[in-house]
Design goal:
The structure holds two protein chains of two kinds. By secondary structure, chain A is an all-beta fold. Chain A has strands spanning 3-5, 10-14, 19-21, 24-26, 32-39, 46-52, 60-61, 64-69, 74-79, 88-96, 102-104, 108-113. In chain A, strands 2, 5, 6, 10, 11 and 12 form a six-stranded mixed β-sheet that branches. A four-stranded antiparallel β-sheet of chain A has the order 3-9-8-7, with no helix packed on it. Chain A is globular. In chain B, strands 2, 4, 5, 6, 9, 10 and 11 form a seven-stranded mixed β-sheet that branches. A four-stranded antiparallel β-sheet of chain B has the order 1-3-8-7, with no helix packed on it. The chains are: A mainly beta, B mainly beta. The A-B interface holds A 33, 35, 37, 42-47, 50, 52, 91, 95, 99-102, 104-107 and B 1, 32, 34, 38, 42-44, 46, 49, 91, 93, 95, 97, 102-109, 111.
Chain lengths: 114, 115
């Protein structure tokens, strides 16, 4: 069965510093997609970044980059130059291409302090 | 990214009443919509998958007669919580998907409080 694991319930980072949020996954399917979503206190789920299992290069979107290590089955999110507005819950998710369902991890609460 | 709206954003109702939540894809045709439920400080739990023009597929443990889902058009899916009880109080959020769209985009969510 497919599974997403986020082992960090909470992380702190100082403003302007970089932070890495961990995500490991488990699947026997050769094709899958990995996603990161941000959920601020308002509740909306904001799509941040996507990595396909066959992508050769790590995905980047502005200050977000995904450190994709396929052999280790990890898809860590790196946020560079943290801002106070980055404080939120962050969820890693994997798409099951058989069902199109997203499987979510338990989330990491990131707090950015001045 | 795609825009998904959800209405209402917040609802308070009395126990025993039914509540309808609408999820609309505003700028694309969503062949599939997903309904999730989220309890405080927890992750999203998939409740059901709705495909336009067909019956929804419910996840194990989700009562289909309790949570009625209708996906009558490519832009609208509705979730009706029937005979709501306090334990149904939660955050309900929908997302959209289509065959040619890699990413699911989420609506802003609906906070339901049943008194």
């Amino acid at each position: 069965a497919q599974k997403i694991t986020q082992t960090q319930p909470g992380m702190f980072v100082q403003e302007k510093e970089a932070v890495t949020l961990d995500c490991t996954y488990d699947t026997s399917d050769p094709s899958y997609g990995l996603f990161w979503y941000k959920q601020p206190s308002s509740g909306e789920m904001i799509f941040l970044i996507y990595q396909g299992s066959y992508d050769q290069q790590n995905a980047t979107e502005g200050r977000y980059s995904l450190n994709f290590q396929k052999a280790r089955k990890s898809a860590n999110l790196v946020i560079s130059a943290s801002q106070l507005g980055d404080s939120a819950m962050y969820f890693c998710a994997m798409r099951d291409y058989n069902t199109d369902k997203l499987i979510f991890g338990t989330g990491t609460r990131l707090q950015v302090f001045p | 990214g795609a825009v998904v709206s959800q209405h209402p954003s917040r609802v308070i109702c009395k126990s025993g009443t039914s509540v309808k939540i609408e999820c609309r894809s505003l700028d694309f045709q969503a062949t599939t919509m997903f309904w999730y439920r989220q309890f405080p400080k927890q992750s999203l739990m998939l409740m059901a998958t709705s495909n336009e023009g067909s019956k929804a597929t419910y996840e194990q443990g989700v009562e289909k007669d309790k949570f009625l889902i209708n996906h009558a058009s490519l832009t609208l899916s509705t979730l009706t919580v029937t005979s709501a009880h306090p334990e149904d109080s939660s955050f309900y959020i929908c997302s959209s998907g289509s065959a040619n769209q890699e990413t699911q985009y989420f609506g802003p969510g609906t906070r339901l409080l049943v008194l």
